[in-house]
Specification:
This protein is 32% helix and 20% strand. It is globular, with a radius of gyration of 17 Å. The longest helix is centred in the first third of the chain and has 13 residues. The protein is α/β, with parallel strands linked by helices and 249 residues long. Bound molecules: zinc ion. The site of zinc ion (ZN) has 7 residues, from loops. Zinc ion (ZN) binds next to loops.
Length: 249
Amino acid sequence: MPDRARPVPQVAILSDIHANRHALDAVREEMNRREVTRWWCVGDMVGYGAAPGAVVDCARTTAERCISGNHDLVVTGRLPIDTFASWARDAAEWTAGELDADQTAWLAGCQPVDREDTVTLVHASLRDPVWEYINGPVEAAASLGLASSPITVFGHTHVPAAWREVAHGEITPVPTFGTLTIGPGRWLLNPGSVGQPRDGDPRAAWAIYDPSVGQIEFIRTPYDIAGAQADIRAAGLPELLAARLEEGF
Ligand code: ZN
């Protein structure tokens, strides 16, 4: 029998975990069930949730690629905290006090964009890797115009999304239900948020990219929302951060 080329293994894409250990654990269990061992982190590991240390430790020891988001940058002092609304500021100050020196140093070393030949990871957008929300075609077209790889994965909005370039400067949204086959042209993909979804579905949102067949599967995973809320309340974090988890907003 001739040797067949071994397919490149699937990789899970997790964004905006936001210190939600319960959501991350549920997603990791689902990854195990599907025998997906690789994962990429698209930033905002911390902020809002009650388990920043556990999430940072998981990312730094198991993620194959990892970028930072605006919350990671604020918590590590790389961005001024007054850029945040009061409840996000309270959470960031609490988070900074929870991380030990090693966790803080590692988080501070992550960058908000990681360019690579096939898949670029960026937290917010290619025009502004830290702050810009890609919510519509104008922002999506601007980022696709700057894309140097066929696929750019982003997060930050906490809403799953996909856009593709149909002609130079012309883009179209693509539905994010189930499995998407990535065709020619440049693509922008957002897996949604693991730890604080904002599209009305409170289940953890993430994706699995299969490089061997050029497909991405958008996934929702139920998790122990009540457990995450109890931890947020026990930590004395703003009530809004607990309440919103069950609404998925
Ligand atoms: Zn976020």
